[in-house]
């Protein structure tokens, strides 16, 4: 479980005078931490999850996939980036820029295991039809740590839909957490050779066999009747992200 704002302050000994950068936090701001600058492509007031006021001192609009951060080297004492880089088409520029502009920081993504297990049946979330998906459907990367280096591997949906990887329960950690000083050390596992991706997925399953569970086929739309009734009720009551976007 990722740290709360108060736990972040205490664990990393953040001081009131520290300049803190929040990368990609518009959807869920760190309201108990004194954020100097928030960078994101959307202002908190533009969030599809509901308009929010800006709690940070400043907001800078950036496309984290392509934009160089408009800050000096080591301008910030601490950088927070939670549940952002897994969404990016190209997260490596943002990782490089965080390393450049901040002296140290805290990075959080969903854990590898948590983001590959299949959800319960869902027909309302984005109004794209009834389906079960591995993890969160818009995530593009999976993360794990080997020694002090973050391993970053493409989240390949066709591979996860294959029978070998149809898992529906994960009893390990929910989130991947990484504290860094001076620089974020990462290794991109490229998908040009698909055999490498398959091998990495198999290695993860082998290391975590006791934490991954199967409950039958997941690529077909069979689930506990409770979840069908729940989704039908949401559909008729027009509840869910797909409806709130209207």
UniProtKB/TrEMBL annotation:
Keywords: Methyltransferase, Transferase
Protein origin, superkingdom: Bacteria
Residue span(s) of domain Methyltransferase type: 57-105
Matching InterPro entries: Methyltransf_11, SAM-dependent_MTases_sf
GO terms of biological process kind: methylation
Gene3D superfamilies: Vaccinia Virus protein VP39
Molecular function as annotated in GO: S-adenosylmethionine-dependent methyltransferase activity
Pfam family, one: Methyltransf_11
Protein name stated in the entry: Methyltransferase domain protein
Organism: Candidatus Woesebacteria bacterium GW2011_GWC2_31_9
Lineage of origin: Bacteria, Candidatus Woeseibacteriota
């Amino acid at each position: 479980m990722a740290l709360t704002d108060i736990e972040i302050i205490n664990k990393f000994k953040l001081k009131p005078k520290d300049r803190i950068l929040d990368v990609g936090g518009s959807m869920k701001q760190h309201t108990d931490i004194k954020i100097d600058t928030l960078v994101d492509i959307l202002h908190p007031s533009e969030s599809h999850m509901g308009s929010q006021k800006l709690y940070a001192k400043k907001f800078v609009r950036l496309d984290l996939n392509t934009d160089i951060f408009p800050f000096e080297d080591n301008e910030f004492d601490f950088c927070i980036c939670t549940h952002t880089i897994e969404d990016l088409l190209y997260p490596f520029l943002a990782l490089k820029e965080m390393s450049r502009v901040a002296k140290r920081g805290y990075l959080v993504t969903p854990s590898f295991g948590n983001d590959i297990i299949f959800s319960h049946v869902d027909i309302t979330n984005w109004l794209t039809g009834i389906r079960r998906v591995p993890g969160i459907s818009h995530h593009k990367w999976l993360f794990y740590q080997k020694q002090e280096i973050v391993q970053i591997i493409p989240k390949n949906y066709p591979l996860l839909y294959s029978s070998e990887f149809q898992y529906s329960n994960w009893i390990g950690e929910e989130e991947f957490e990484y504290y860094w000083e001076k620089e974020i050390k990462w290794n991109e596992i490229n998908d040009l050779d698909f055999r490498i991706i398959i091998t990495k997925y198999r290695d993860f399953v082998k290391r975590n066999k006791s934490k991954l569970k199967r409950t039958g086929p997941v690529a077909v739309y069979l689930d506990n009747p409770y979840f069908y009734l729940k989704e039908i009720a949401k559909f008729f009551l027009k509840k869910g992200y797909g409806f709130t976007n209207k």
